[in-house]
Amino acid sequence: MKAAWWHRYGVIAAVLLLGTANAWAKGVQLLVSNVQAQQRPGTTLVDVTYDLETIGDLPVWVSLFLSTDSGASYPNLCHTVSGDVGSGVLPGTVRHIVWDAATDFPGFSSTTCRLRVTADDAPNLAAFAYIPPGTFDMGSPTTELTRLANEALHQVTLTHGFYAQGTEVTNQQYMELAQWAYDNGYATATASAVSDNMDGSTRLLKSLGSGTEMTFTNGVFSCVNPDKPVLYATWYGAAAFCDWLSLRQGLTRAYSHATWQCNAGSPYTAAGYRLPTEAEWEYACRAGSQTTFNTGSCLVSGTDANFDGLYYPYPGCPSGTQIFTAVPVGTYPANGFGLHEMHGNVAEWCNDWYGNAYGGTVTNPTGPGSGGNVVIRGGDWSRRANSCRSAARGYTSQIIADYLTGFRPVRSAN
Predict the structure, then answer these.
(1) What dotted CATH number matches 15-123?
(2) What are the C-alpha distances in Å from 314 to residues 309, 320, 386, 389?
(3) C-alpha distances in Å from residue 335, one per residue of 83, 264, 410
(4) What pTM was computed for the model?
(5) Which of 381, 276, 251 is nearest to 339 (CA)?
(6) pLDDT digits over 390-412, tens only?
(7) CATH H-level, domain 126-414: superfamily
């Protein structure tokens, strides 16, 4: 593969470009080659070209990553990109990406940077939405109806932007990535469960079999209701999914499976995919709102979200429907950040241990250092409206695998 060099200002100088390919399904082969880059004179725009081959000429997901440590790791996803990048890229020669380097990394200047182009046959991965850094009021005011004492209103600053999957992880997504992990030795499976096989861990990741919507027979996973959120995954199963996704994309995984800490206790600087911190989850849910729900002062079941609004609507709000099951992801309108079903449908695992101590002006909070339960957020299809509020806090054991809890991965942007 060709080497080209790029510097933040001026002429081409010091960026080696590498091409890699990752296969999502067993037996699928992808090839990225002839990767080259050229900075446009007088600008910070970089033109990246590459050749792409796939079996069967299938469309794939293409990403561009930046390394600032001479290629030792590639923690920075380049998100200000256009052209032959993202989902649905067809194979061919001289595929073209335009990258706005200055927007992604203002003032960046280095002689040790590298770029990597990756291709992945993962069309079922929902688009990730970019969530910018910012400051917000976390928790609920004392005037919010049905609030609890553990929701003390306090100011939180998040200094790192991040990407969040636009929907909860589906049965199809989990099934396909579990197959990849099983085929590559990262997980083991029986007819009844998927278990961990990393760092000496044998933690239960996901229950299988009747009622769980996913089965495993003769080395092959299958599922029903492919577009519904995956259920019966423990917190460990959600964290493992994030690590599988990182490994499949050539990223450093976020979790130690010996301690299950995320990036040694520093999730905001993790290179790979992970579960959101509790603060990130509420910030992403609110999407700039400070009302009870990101839809305003009311949340109507059947129109805005999936919860028990037939018998338990929010006080002063109209009643709706109750469906008695999770619905396919993307059923309800997205919030201001482009995220669907942040209220209701299934509750979502967060990265943090749960703690009652909650408040103060804080930056990049990570929750308690240890605990007996972890945070879940968002409410679910069986809950009352008050449990679906943006500020409502839930918690449960990491080993719980039930029909009410799912998750969505995130990844730090810088």
Answers:
(1) 2.60.40
(2) 8, 10, 6, 9
(3) 26, 32, 16
(4) 0.77
(5) 276
(6) 999 999 999 999 999 999 999 99
(7) paralog of FGE (formylglycine-generating enzyme) (3.90.1580.10)
